[in-house]
């Protein structure tokens, strides 16, 4: 083979390494698995791979990265996410342990700094050195000593020395009698600093008996108690190897089991090794006799009983247990007092105390008052309703709350400046007195706003009680002052202009809102007739009454729902989505009216809700449909942001109970009658700032629907007695709105009314109404009289009211359509309007309704006819269908009702479209069911 | 089956509104399968030979749908997922999971099989994209307050019936949601073939024909029994009759215009769970218990034994 291809081999370019030929019978080698493959350099050394991004095969000084000698590569962190996370290296990052140790360049151990080291050198040493220098064979050879500077002494040492202390002595007053029988004994350890050249020790008398009177002795030095825990398994006091002993060592130490601290002082029984002189070398119980030891006789029997104490005895007095065994000190306190004579050098400027430090006096704890209860007792919380206002009053009195009176503020409620004012001080001028002065203008503005908000809150708090009074004083509306006795409460300094900070319950009616704010201001000032004076004098009595309730309620609710909460929480500094949740802007309405509509088979507008709905762009694309809202980014139903923990996200407001009347009430403000109503924005079309208010106002309407009694009181009365008044009211409303009324009265059929009134007995839209309605029946007579009386007084009071209440029932018919118009577009807040449908008005209503019904029937008929025709001509079905649809549509357009065709729905959210629905609601709530 | 596929492009013809998405429908409880063949020039045939059984592994399968060309089918069931199969090969292609913890009631392709719409007990309809590999739905229609029982799709609308008693029609072209309150839990909704009306069956044993645009009631059909099960309803091939299952083992036919009961066809002893009407011919498929039945008009001469 080779011979054949010999020349052709020349032509070929060989590439790579050829496989080795296998021997006969040799198995092919298994390839090395990937994890076992290693990379080596040209010298065959293993190359470490550090990672593609951290050095590859060679990193650091001689590829030492990651090894013990080299630095550790920091792990790669993408700077995309955390780019601000830049680690700043300090010098410590480049130091190793040696540098941080005691003698390194940055020792971590606590040492005496130069500031607290004595500057002066050890004088004794100095002297010795000079002496040595003088006597040295080579004068000036102390150069070497100069190089070796002694350790600096701390200030404490210096102070002690100045006070006469010397190394080796204990600290404390000198004692008269030398208590210890200490022998000058090389075995005695000296603690503290270096060996003193002859101190008090040198002056010791060896003779115990001779004790001169004037000689005092320094106390014994104390070994600091060793608090190091025993962490080995050796026996007590075992010393394996003592390097100190090895170097300077004494041996034959007495083992004192009972005194752990001062060792080597207990030489009563004599020491074995005392006279043996110094043993050099390493010694210890673990070792035998060292090579340097002179005697090796004691190898095997080192333990003798004599080394142990055989009796428990009292410690020697003055044993150096000062400060350690406290009981002793207390035991002979008198003696210590007697002994209080510090004999020694007293520093300049100091004198010896004549008396010892008096011990701390301990005062007994204060006596508790007899009626003190350690557990706080919570008074029962009683909701402020009209029924239990008396109870509330009693409770608050029993709680001992001070009545709100500007004069009787306790001093704790005054701040310094107010107290100063009271005392007649002139306010401090000049330097800013408070931190507030340093605030920027903007912050000040904000603070001011907040303060006003709280002021407002306080005012509204008062309005709460006012509301109770107003409701309790309801039966006697002619004498409003009766209920307002408690309006005396006033706040001090209430002259600040009250701005309704952000709560405008009547924002849609600026007039009313203005009156409301005025009311709040008045309440804050503590005016008795806060409500009376701010109400519009041109209003009728029941309007004023209603508005009074409304204001009081609004104030109350605002406090309870908003301010009390907001006082506990702060606003987020940043835009934070977490406290707000997106909820659909439009919600499907309450189903109760729809149910009745279904029962009547009135499908269509009554049962249909139409919402704006944004399909996803991709979905449109997939469906081959142009995006209906090309500019919108939202998907699904339009959403609004609202408070996350708002109750209103989870409540469906019973609109049937509240809305119609509130709408009616809103109409009574003449400023708002006008063509611009039709394009009034829906209440959810508000900007983000107003949303909070929305929730509150919703809450308002909700709560108002629960309040019940006022509207129930008024409605039957008015319905039965004062129909003419109502009509006049409605007439008043209708002035100037007649232009809108054409062609509206033809909506609901008679069946509708019948069905509603027939079924309304078992469908209770609001239970509270019914309950209270029953209870009121018996009271009605008296109340009627009352109301009559009040009416009369009102007539006398205000001429305009009197005019309005004159029976002038001319053409009440147009009233209904207007009602409808406004009902359709908006849900208003406010108290409920008493039903406006009086008997004659209703009959006039019914006529167009019948017409409408007829039309409906006709429509059905035509439809059916069409169908029948269609059946006959099956062949041309498609065309027929189209025709049918066209007919249908033409029908619709021809009829006066403006049926929303699907195309035009978005444009004309027509005023009239939803009206039957609203009508239904209204009608359901009429008290007619009793008849 | 393969022959069917050849014809199917017709269905995707844009102008044709009478297409039927529900080419095949399996009821989980019976395990029965129903299918419509497409009309052939050589005369209709009904699928009688079992070609494949897919073990979906979804426990009870609640709905099965073909896509527009019949190459894929979707199943949904109790395991909260949708599964896209190639039914002829029997392979699982994709699994769409995202319906929370609730079972998926119904599933539907749109007309071009670019979007899957699935309605679940978790009260959402989810639109899944067939054209991309997005694991999450394009859009979630979560307006319903209760489980979705029925979803139907037209070329630009999604019709959904919910247990909360409302029929919601999402009009993509207009960008509106129309919610019609019916009151009783909806079991089935469907468009009429002319696209002008919606038929709604609810648990109060009533079918209602509503005008699609205004929501007005055009007809009401009662007489059958539907108080418990999710039964199907449909319109006949030319919108002449309203057909509904019943719990008393019959299929009820009403005249659409008159509203009068035209026929109560006894089908079997059990509950007639599901039915489907032929898109062009008077042919009806019903499902009772574990079996399905096919019905033709009386004059029809059976080429093959149809029951």
TrEMBL record, chain A:
Pfam families xrefs: DUF1604, G-patch, HTH_TGH
Comp. bias regions, Basic and acidic residues? 582-593, 674-695, 719-735, 780-791
InterPro entries xref list: DUF1604, G_patch_dom
Where are stretches of biased composition, namely Basic residues?
A: 851-887, 922-931
**Region (Disordered), start-end ranges:** 1-41, 170-209, 462-488, 571-594, 657-931
What ranges does the record list as Low complexity composition bias?
895-904
Acidic residues: bias regions: 1-12, 768-779
Q: Which GO terms describe its molecular function?
A: RNA binding
Task: Output the GO biological process annotations, alphabetical, semicolon-separated.
Answer: mRNA processing
Per UniProt, the ranges with Polar residues bias are 466-476, 657-671, 792-801
Tell me where in this chain the G-patch domain is found: 152-172
* PROSITE patterns to which the protein is assigned, alphabetical: G_PATCH
One cellular component term from this protein's GO annotations in UniProt: catalytic step 2 spliceosome
Q: Which family does it belong to?
A: Belongs to the GPATCH1 family.
The protein depicted here goes by the name G patch domain-containing protein 1
What is the protein's species of origin? Balaenoptera musculus
Which lineage do the record's taxonomy fields give for this organism? Answer: Eukaryota, Metazoa, Chordata, Craniata, Vertebrata
Automatic annotation (TrEMBL), chain B:
Cross-referenced CDD domains? WD40
Location comes to: Cytoplasm
Q: Which GO terms describe its biological process?
A: mRNA splicing, via spliceosome
Please give the Pfam families that the UniProt record associates with this protein. Answer: WD40
SUPFAM superfamilies associated with the record: WD40 repeat-like
Which keywords are on file for this protein? Cytoplasm, Repeat, WD repeat
UniProt xrefs under Gene3D superfamilies: YVTN repeat-like/Quinoprotein amine dehydrogenase
WD repeat spans: 54-95, 104-129
Query: To which protein family does this belong?
Result: Belongs to the WD repeat MORG1 family.
UniProt-recorded name of the protein: WD repeat domain-containing protein 83
